[in-house]
Design a protein that fits this description.
Layout: H1 4-23, E1 29-35, E2 38-44, E3 54-63, E4 73-80, E5 89-90, E6 92-95, E7 102-108, E8 113-123, E9 126-136, H2 144-182
Antiparallel strand pairs: 1-2, 2-3, 3-7, 4-5, 4-8, 6-7, 8-9
Length: 189
């Protein structure tokens, strides 16, 4: 048997692995907001955020004179809109060690609906706040890895069907070549 079936299995594995690595690569969305003299680039790692799950973000604060970044602080909180029955959630924000003006944070919102992620930046150029609107969704019914496995199952079934058909055709050819040698010619009788 030729190793062509191995290529099919590797293709299925690559499809599964690509979905997993795509989810783990980097920010899904980046937003730029202006808070007075400061510019905030906000990197979001899931879109939309789901209720009950940690929503992570990175913020890079920049200023026109770089001296305004000395001693800059950032706080964040998730504020529900008027039609969302929830309370304000304070986000955990910590400075990024490797980047000047960089911050990492996360917040967990427990209710689906419309929210605003409010960032308050303070430093030598003053204190300003900026909002980022979000739509928080209900959690998915099944995990993404299980959904991909279910979705790719027919492809595996199709691959197995092809392997069985190929072996069936090979058996028919062998039986046909053996039968042709021992069979008499019906026209000659």
């Amino acid at each position: 048997m030729k190793p062509w079936w191995l290529a099919g299995i590797l293709a299925c594995g690559t499809l599964c692995a690509s979905a997993i690595t795509a989810a783990a690569q980097g920010p899904v969305r980046s937003e730029t907001r202006y808070a007075g003299a400061y510019t905030l680039r906000i990197d979001l790692y899931s879109d939309p955020p789901f209720t009950g799950r940690r929503y992570t973000f990175d913020v890079l604060v920049s200023a026109t004179p770089p001296a305004d970044l000395r001693g800059v602080t950032l706080t964040a909180s998730a504020i529900p809109d008027a039609d969302t029955n929830a309370t304000t959630m304070r986000a955990t924000v910590s400075p990024a060690v490797q980047t000047a003006g960089g911050f990492q944070g996360h917040v967990t919102m427990g209710v689906r609906g419309a929210w605003r992620l409010r960032f308050t930046v303070g430093g030598p150029a003053g204190t300003n706040a900026v909002d980022l609107p979000l739509r928080v969704a209900a959690p998915t019914a099944i995990p993404a890895w299980l959904a991909w496995s279910i979705g790719l199952a027919p492809l595996l079934g199709l691959l197995l069907f092809g392997v069985r058909q190929r072996s069936y055709l090979a058996r028919l050819q062998v039986m046909g070549s053996m039968g042709a040698a021992g069979a008499s010619n019906p026209g000659g009788t």
